[in-house]
Design brief:
Largest interface: A-B, 36 and 41 residues
Structural class of chain A: alpha+beta
Number of helices of chain A: 3
Distance between the termini of chain B: 27 Å
Strand order of the largest sheet of chain B: 4-3-5-6
Number of strands of chain B: 6
Helix content of chain A: 25-40%
Number of domains of chain A: 2
Number of helices of chain B: 14
Number of strands of chain A: 7
Structural class of chain B: alpha+beta
Radius of gyration of chain A: 27 Å
Strand content of chain B: 5-15%
Order of helices and strands of chain B: EHHHHEHHHHHHHEHEEEHH
Shape of chain A: elongated
Radius of gyration of chain B: 23 Å
Distance between the termini of chain A: 81 Å
Number of domains of chain B: 3
Oligomer: heterodimer
Chain lengths: ~170, ~350
């Protein structure tokens, strides 16, 4: 009887030691991954996973252009509402719209000053990705050579201007 | 590492589960509404953190949201509460990693906290069936919930501390300028001038960084905990009133429940049963005491309306009694510091 109880206690203490080890391993894994995410996030422009709350009070106004060839020169055609028409390879006129592809605010708002959520660098990073994405989806428009965004910025009250472009593949 | 094997009463953790299941359900419903009202993010411009092939189709995402909502509801009513809560949190994290454009710190924090809550013994109380399992249970994961709150406060405050614009007040000054029209209309002229002063923005920045650092460290020490909890309630209340950050304030305030002492009914509220106010307030307090902080008594021959006994058994009368009530009642907690200051002459209980 005594022997049985001792072996049961031993089994229980062994189990509890494994349980403690498992808990310690979980803690190390969970916070290790999270801290790695924070370290990565701090190096990315939009600070994803970085817990950088209210990091800036910045604004941006996006002016969108398409670059076309006119008399052997590249010129910028403004797109105040993000819409344009162009003939495709068969000559049929087609409609294109920035907002059909880009629904994310503040990038879908053109010509209006908008709050740059999570900082200006983050929104400019997203805007460059949006331009790259858009030009991938207008391959049947031979007249557009590139999309260009001229952005008026206000970083913590300090004005500036940035130009981003995406060449069609 | 004794905290890994610590076992204490788990009653309060049931309320933690209900709070996080409810908050995650609200977020899930919002995502579901967005899916119905706007194009699916996977069909338009998006930026996944995972490889593109991991982004589900519209119908796959709908199923994911459905599982998330079901997990939240089951956790809310206490049926398979812990696995349901874990599944809901994991579904949410997967969805969050499918598009960094939809990433918000408050959503990420809510999902991480919910996942950690599912590892606590949070299924022993506040269940639909009304069954309650008495006794102690391992509380190690509840400590992790507290640590997760600290991670957010530290990351946020150290990020601001390292930023020269934040330290100088340059980030807050334009924010204060946005509030100028409201202040000019409703408050005396001096306030508007104050909001426009760079020195005031600098002082506010230092106070905000200091508050976050205090919250990160002070919540862990019994001597500073109640003051830091009060500071946290005010801090998040202020954020909720002045900025739109979805469920952030509610998430952090719900997380504060892990800092509540697990043991129950250690204080006593004794109401004067001869006075109608005593009977009514006694009954109301008993109903609102969801954290089970007090033993509730109605006494006939009592001179004052309320006598509160703290953990050491020391009786408090008058304003001090109301202070003790406010200290342990979440709805009255904002009154604790004003009452503490009004009764400052009284020696703090040892």
């Amino acid at each position: 009887m005594q022997k049985n109880r001792q072996s049961s206690d031993l089994r229980r203490s062994g189990r509890s030691r494994w349980a403690l080890l498992a808990r310690a391993a979980f803690v190390a894994l969970f916070f290790g991954l999270e801290l790695a995410g924070i370290a990565w996030g701090l190096r990315t422009p939009d600070h994803t996973l970085g817990f950088q709350m209210f990091n800036e009070t910045s604004r941006l106004t996006i002016h969108l252009f398409r670059e076309v060839r006119k008399k052997k020169r590249r010129v910028l055609v403004p797109l105040p509402d993000g819409r344009w028409q162009a003939p495709d390879a068969t000559g049929k006129l087609r409609d294109y719209a920035w907002q059909e592809r880009v629904h994310y605010s503040p990038l879908n708002v053109l010509g209006t000053s908008m709050h740059a959520r999570y900082g200006l660098d983050g929104q400019l990073f997203h805007l460059q990705a949006a331009l790259d994405d858009m030009v991938q989806h207008v391959t049947d428009d031979p007249s557009t050579l590139a999309l260009v965004a001229k952005v008026d910025t206000l970083r913590n009250g300090v004005p500036g201007r940035v130009e981003l472009r995406a060449e069609k593949p | 590492m004794s905290w890994l094997s610590e076992e204490r009463d788990a009653h309060v953790l049931g309320l933690l589960r209900v709070a996080f299941a409810g908050l995650l359900l609200l977020l899930t419903l919002r995502l579901g509404r967005e899916l119905l009202q706007a194009p699916y993010f996977g069909d338009v411009f998006h930026m996944p953190l995972l490889p593109e092939s991991f982004v589900p189709s519209r119908s796959g995402y709908s199923v994911l949201l459905g599982c998330q909502a079901l997990g939240c509801v089951l956790a809310l009513i206490g049926v398979w509460a812990r696995p349901a809560l874990a599944v809901a949190a994991l579904c949410g994290l997967y969805g969050l990693f499918c598009d960094r454009l939809q990433y918000h710190n408050n959503r990420y924090e809510l999902l991480l906290l919910t996942l950690l809550v599912s590892f606590t013994p949070c299924d022993r109380s506040f269940c639909w069936s009304g069954q309650r399992r008495l006794g102690t249970a391992p509380r190690w994961a509840a400590r992790l919930v507290g640590a997760q709150l600290v991670v957010v406060y530290l990351a946020s405050s150290l990020g601001k501390l390292a930023d020269a614009d934040w330290r100088s007040g340059a980030v807050l000054l334009p924010r204060f300028a946005l509030a100028q029209p409201f202040v000019e209309r409703y408050l005396p002229v001096g306030f508007a001038q104050l909001l426009g002063a760079p020195w005031f923005a600098h002082a506010a920045a230092v106070a905000a960084i200091g508050s976050e650092l205090c919250l990160a460290l002070g919540l862990w020490f019994p001597a500073t905990r109640v003051l830091c909890l009060w500071l946290g309630v005010m801090f998040h209340g202020g954020i909720e009133l002045t900025a739109h950050v979805e469920l952030f304030s509610y998430t952090m305030l719900s997380g504060y429940l892990v800092f509540v002492t697990p043991e129950l009914h250690e204080r006593t509220l004794s109401w004067n049963a001869r006075r109608p106010a005593g009977r009514a307030l006694g009954s109301l307090c008993a109903r609102l005491d969801v954290l089970a902080r007090f033993r509730h008594e109605q006494v006939d021959g009592q001179a004052s309306l309320l006598i509160a006994r703290d953990r050491s058994g020391k009786p408090h009368h008058g304003l001090s009694a109301w202070r003790e009530l406010a200290r342990a009642s979440p709805p009255l907690f904002p009154l604790w510091l004003p009452l503490r200051l009004l009764t400052w002459r009284e020696r703090a209980p040892s």
